Amino acid sequence: MLAISLVFLLLATVSAGKHDQYSGYSVHGIKLRTQSDKAFIEELTQSLDLDVWQVGNPESRDAQLMLSPEDRVAVLDDLDKHGLEHYLHVADVAKVLEAHEKEVNQWKQSRSGRLMPFNDYPRYEEVDAYLEQIAAQYPELVTLVNAGQSFEGRDIKYLKISTTNFTDTSKPVYFMDAMMHAREWVTTPVTLFSIHRLVEDLRDLDRDLLEDIDWIILPMTNPDGYEYSHTDVRLWRRTRSINLEVSTECVGVDANRNFDVNWNTTGVSQNPCSDVYPGTAPFSESETRIVRDIIAENLNRMEIFMNIHSHGNWVLYGFGDYTLPDNVIQLHVLSAAMGAAMDALKLPAAEWYKIGNSAMILYTDSGSAADYGQYVGVPFSLTLELPGYGNGFLVPPQYIEHINFETWEGIAVSARLARSFYRARQ
Ligand SMILES: *[C@@H]1O[C@H](CO)[C@@H](O)[C@H](O)[C@H]1NC(C)=O
Ligand SMILES: *[C@@H]1O[C@H](CO)[C@@H](O)[C@H](O)[C@H]1NC(C)=O
Fold first, then answer.
1. What are the catalytic residues?
2. Residues with CB under 6 A from ligand 1
3. How confident is the model at residue 10 (pLDDT cuts 50, 70, 90)?
4. 74 with 37: CB under 8 angstroms?
5. Which residues contact 347 (CB under 8 A, 6 or more apart)?
6. In what order do the strands lie in the sheet with 380-386?
7. What is the pLDDT of residues 81-134, one digit of tens each?
8. Tens-place pLDDT, residues 299-334
9. DSSP assignment of 184-208
């Protein structure tokens, strides 16, 4: 009896305490007046390894920083000293995480049986089952590829969708991937919905997208991190690789700083516990090697690589060190067309999409997936940051359907432009 009550007690503490590590953490909005305010926040963030909930832009978008109880007083003092106006956005992150978890569970329960994986936050197994099912159901159109394993041994699978089994060289390849960063839950549904609209629910108006383009869709680049964000730490971002020579305390690498382009130069931290730790070498992570290999294998026809993240309403192109690709005009045209298509369908609560060079309008970085694609020769290699509606990474599940719908329209526009540019270079 005692043993049983003890077990109960333990279970109760574990579930009640799941988000305790964020107890007392707060999120603060900061009004930015100038580029130098923005640079100041970027420096502050890097020097203290702060978690950025939102990157701000002068006069148009407030920055949001998460602060631990230990950092709070000093950081807020620093902001005051610089004359920066700030306000409390989230008083207790642990409480917000609990409410979000409840909301996600209720969403699943209230729709059980009617829920498609793309209208939900599906677990790894559910995504895997969906890919298997689509491949089995549409063998003429869809090829399932098991690209290798994550650090913890999960299969990382993607679909190739093609009416000509990737044999027609007059077609461009469109590659999209999602969930490189674990906490960005709404990214995977967008890729699953794209599969759905291309295969299960193709509309007459979209027939050209299926017939003229070969698609590679990788819904979950970092499954270990994603599962961990469900079971343990909702705000986990990195992979889950263990390297005891580097750290016995922290695991994982920022996959989006681990690609071999300007690697370990800017926008990274040497602290292995940091969310922008780039790893011990380029491609130290099996997850990033898989993306690298997909690009290499299809490079002669890959016209576009869309690396999908959440959140912030951005379409970004390289490079993260302020240098611009030679085809920057076309990159800007395509990105802007995509952003405009999504803005036309936006909900009132969403930000307008911002388009541009990632260093100029977001922050400097190195070793990113999109920069790598651009660097090795994909003409349109982009980072897409989906809407967060003021909820950061914790996008309420009620928004998933709308994000899927508006993003698909943006993807369609980018795909048609990519097709034109591909034909022009042939
Ligand atoms: C497509 O080509 C691959 C070889 O590249 C082959 O294994 C596969 O069976 C083909 N699929 C279809 C539907 O023809
Ligand atoms: C990354 O760059 C820093 C600063 O230049 C350097 O000290 C460090 O050794 C580099 N890390 C690796 C693994 O090369």
1. 385
2. 139-140, 143, 165
3. very low
4. no
5. 387, 389, 399, 402
6. 142-149, 155-161, 214-218, 173-178, 302-310, 380-386, 314-317, 354-357
7. 999 999 999 999 999 999 999 999 999 998 877 789 999 999 999 999 999 999
8. 999 999 999 999 999 999 999 999 999 999 999 999
9. -TTHHHHHHHHHIIIIIS--GGGHH
DSSP string, 21-40: GGTT-EEEEE---SHHHHHH
Atom number in ligand 1 closest to CA 140:
13
In CATH, the architecture of 17-97 is 2-Layer Sandwich (3.30)
Indicate which atom in ligand 2 lies nearest the CA of residue 264.
1
Using CA atoms, how far apart are residues 214 and 419, in angstroms rounded to an integer?
10
Between helix 328-343 and helix 400-424 the angle, nearest 10°, is 150
Closest CA to 224 of 215, 216, 232: 232
Going from N- to C-terminal start, the domains of the chain cover 17-97, 117-232+260-425
Q: How far apart are CA 272 and CA 15, in angstroms?
A: 28
- What is the radius of gyration, based on Cα positions, of the chain? 21
Instruction: Please identify, by atom number, the ligand 2 atom nearest to the C-alpha of residue 281.
Output: 13
Contacts (Cβ under 8 Å, ≥6 apart) of 243: 251, 272, 280, 284
Which of 285, 290, 156, 164 is closest to 219 using CA atoms?
A: 156
Rounded distance from Cα 412 to ligand 2 centre (Å) = 41
Of all ligands present, the nearest one to the C-alpha of 143 is: 1
- Superfamily of domain covering 117-232+260-425: Zn peptidases (3.40.630.10)
- For atom 11 of ligand 1, the residue with the nearest CA is 165
Q: How far is the CA of 50 from the centre of ligand 2 (A)?
A: 20
pLDDT exceeds cutoff 50 at 9: no
